[in-house]
Amino acid sequence: MFVDLNADAGESYGAFSYGHDREIFPLVTSVNLACGFHGGSPTRIREAVALAKAHGVAVGAHPGFPDLVGFGRRDMALSPEEVYADVLYQIGALYAFLKTEGLSLHHVKPHGALYLRACRDRETARAIAEAVKAFDPEVPLVVLPGTVYEEEARRAGLRVVLEAFPERAYLRNGQLAPRSLPGSWISDPKEAARRALRMVLERKVEALDGGEVEVKAETLCIHGDNPNAPEVALAVRRALEEAGIEVKPF
């Protein structure tokens, strides 16, 4: 049994540092790098790609809405044509840096509000899937299971990678709890590790609004902007490995 451990990274911009890339990269097996729209200036993207190469970490694109001020976490009602173009543009930006380092694009995973909109809006999901397919139909797309986003990724013929979030709370409907809700973040490393084990071994996790949610996890996400993200990543990885679960890229 194995699972991938991914982290959102490369989200610093110019003189502004964000996240814990240097501490997290040695602990995860894949990273989702910002592509300039919600974070990640050209110099910072280049640095993140070099850091990933140094640690042997698989690199995926993390395209978001064009919203630097809101860090890509504010919903935007873009047309499918705009979503398609924006996603393709961002993948291309990251790919240029990957190519100069002799690396390939491992996967694509949308960021923040774009990811959440894809989970509930079929046209957005379809636009993302078609953009990835146009770039390279062999590139996997990371999705939240049981959503229209998963359906559209499969419809496009892409390899689908199912994702779970041990440090984010779920609702009974299988969606992630809004960040505005108390308890939506699991900041205790031990609790995040416990949840990660349940997700992988039992395919279940407790819901914030009661009951349990079935989850399918081929990759587990650690948010790099979590204040104690390195501690959470370390606790999750140790717990997985101590349980005999191999941690490696999908």
The CATH H-level superfamily is: Glycoside hydrolase/deacetylase
Overall SS class: alpha/beta
- Please tell me how large the radius of gyration is: 17 Å
As for the CATH topology, it is TIM Barrel
Summarize the amount of helix as a percent range.
Answer: 25-40%
Q: Helical segment tally?
A: 8
List the helices and strands and how they pair.
Elements: E1 2-9, H1 21-24, E2 30-34, H2 42-55, E3 58-62, H3 80-100, E4 107-108, H4 112-120, H5 122-135, E5 141-143, H6 148-155, E6 160-164, H7 189-201, E7 204-206, E8 212-214, E9 219-222, H8 229-242, E10 246-247
Parallel strand pairs: 1-2, 1-9, 1-10, 2-3, 3-4, 5-6, 6-9
Antiparallel strand pairs: 7-8
Helix pairs in contact: 3-5, 4-5, 5-6, 7-8
Features:
10 strands; 250 residues; two-stranded antiparallel sheet; alpha/beta; TIM Barrel; single chain; globular; 8-stranded parallel sheet
